[in-house]
Amino acid sequence: MFEATIYKNRRKALKEKVSNGLVLILGNGESPANYPDNTYKFRQDSTFLYFFGLDMPGFAGVLDADSGKEYLFGNDVDMDDIIWMGPQPKVKELGEKIGVENTSPFAGLADMLRQAIAEGRRIHFLPPYRHANMLQIEELLGIRPELQKKYASLELIHAVVALRSVKEQCEIEQITNACNIGYEMHTTAMKNCRSGVKEQYVAGLIEGIAASYGKMVSFPVILSQNGETLHNHYHGNILKKGRMMLTDAGAENDMNYCSDFTRTVPVDGKFDSRQKDVYNIVVACNRKALELSRPGVTYLSVHLEICKVLAQGLKELGLMKGDIDAAVAAGAHALFMPHGLGHMMGLDVHDMEDLGQIYVGYDDEVRPVNQFGTSSLRMGRRLQPGFVVTDEPGCYFIPALIDQWRQQGLHKDFLVYDKIETFKDFGGIRLEDDVLITEEGCRVLGDKRIPITVGEVENIMG
Length: 462
Ligand SMILES: [Mn+2]
Description:
The strands form six sheets. The protein has a five-stranded mixed sheet, sandwiched between helices. A three-stranded antiparallel sheet has the order 9-10-12, with helices on one face. It has a three-stranded antiparallel sheet with strand order 13-16-17, with helices on one face. It has helices at 4-17, 46-52, 79-85, 91-97, 107-118, 131-141, 145-151, 154-165, 169-191, 199-213, 273-292, 299-316, 324-330, 357-361, 399-408, 417-421, 454-461; strands at residues 22-26, 32-35, 38-39, 60-64, 70-73, 102-104, 123-124, 216-217, 222-224, 244-249, 251-252, 261-266, 388-391, 394-396, 428-430, 433-437, 442-444. The chain is built from 17 helices and 17 strands. By secondary structure, the chain is of the alpha+beta class. β4 (60-64) and β5 (70-73) form a beta hairpin. Helix content is 41%, strand content 13%. The structure holds manganese (II) ion. Residues 260, 343, 390, 392, 432 line the site of manganese (II) ion.
């Protein structure tokens, strides 16, 4: 964990942002996979990690916005735990590590909240996403699970988003570390992308790299020679010459900070000319986003600009036609890129998505766009120094979507369906980097850039 002052400062800032009452931050517990003692790898709640730093199950924190007092609730281990898990620090000692003076057994949490309710005090909590915590909130606050999202504190959500969105130097170092693991993962995937190899083999290799350098993958690996399926977790195909392998994967490091990269490479290491043509358009989109991203610019506008680069490139290939600005305004390009340019990243790969994407990626000024494609943009608001966002344009040929649009006669003025038809066997390309917004502009995170140009990719695979 970081040193205690980091957590103390964060909690102080949070208390200043919340007007009054108690702030309840629940940690996560163990989560059973197939029987109670056989659990999934433990994953702490990211907001609890951010303010209380303890990466272990069974804790909750409370901040009193009125008195300024801070509390950590958790149980000391007993002899049984020591026999099975080894010696563990006392809750008091854990509190000292993160600068919290007041510690208490977990049961003290219910007592404190009961008293606060009796006094009519406000209790702020965040929208829970795990059923165990929903039951806990029901028990503690008497709010049924289906109502908890509604009663979660918007004031607290906004305060947490404001703090966690701007990454501190110590966090940028951790994300960089996660990106460096991502570099190992992706270059290993490239070197093993050979015809006759099963996708699962490559997926397993890179998952092992994430586990061996850090905690685990930051989300289940997406790896497929059918890259046109955006989130393809099926890894049962044998890689075939002539296809491209799309790998969207990242690592979560020891401090639970994430990386998230996508590369798309030709099986056996040489792009054919059609692949090269489309690939270079996506490289240009990725590069355009790096050129435009800087403080004060909305990420929605960056998204729309790279859509124009995509449409222009596809027009040059004879797949689109007409006025490019009009095509993008109409949403015709979304046949090829039905998703957004990127999302926030930090302790979560989609940072703070549990708090509500609308509060993370949008604000009063920049509202979500209700048009197919751009409606999937997770991050639209103005960029600030310290934001970490992904830059992940793509170009896909999804046969079912092409058929549907053609049948409905959608965007006939901008789409050359006869030509598009000949790309139905193409697959999909996505190229994703993790980007830090700096004072002057932005930079790709990671000590080394994962090979991205045609030349770099063919070189490392050759
Ligand atoms: Mn991503």
